[in-house]
Amino acid sequence: xxxxxxxxxxxxxxxxxxxxxxxxxxxxxxxxxxxxxxxxxxxxxxxxxxxxxxxxxxxxxxxxxxxxxxxxxxxxxxxxxxxxxxxxxxxxxxxxxxxxxxxxxxxxxxxxxxxxxxxxxxxxxxxxxxxxxxxxxxxxxxxxxxxxxxxxxxxxxxxxxxxxxxxxxxxxxxxxxxxxxxxxxxxxxxxxxxxxxxxxxxxxxxxxxxxxxxx
Length: 215
Hints:
Number of domains: 2
CATH class of the largest domain: Alpha Beta
Distance between the termini: 30 Å
Order of helices and strands: EEHEHEHEHEEEEEEEEH
Number of strands: 13
CATH topology of the largest domain: Rossmann fold
Low-confidence stretches: none
């Protein structure tokens, strides 16, 4: 089962849903759903971003409201991700998680690195851009079009043992140093590429250039 999570940040595109998808709104992300005429199966959070009228509309439309206290240890998006993982969803696509506030954006970028999400394939979608995390000992396949931009950014320290296939600037058991921009703006030379990592953590960003121009 695939899950789509709509967060409360700027929504740069309408999610493409299939009938089997689990649609989850993280608090104010439910407003995006209402504006698009979508009915999330679940709305989760402290509900501080929704009016009583909006909550009533969601409930009458069949949405399950999972309310958490305002004084909580986790953001609404983290609660939504935890719910999706507990339901066994894979992959998990997240929309509306970037751009509104830098503290929230940075936290959301790093959320997939949490230990409890290790087994989940989480992708953050923002218009023509798609972000995934790659952990040490894993490989990632990136699918796009020739000419698309692929950037690899090490976080949590240096990333070592990086091998890439299908990118213009290839790495063979190479390293990327934390804080360096060496991994920025590589280019897909085919329809797909692979990135393997021995140690560390990489933020992998795909920018679909034709779609970016359209935006």
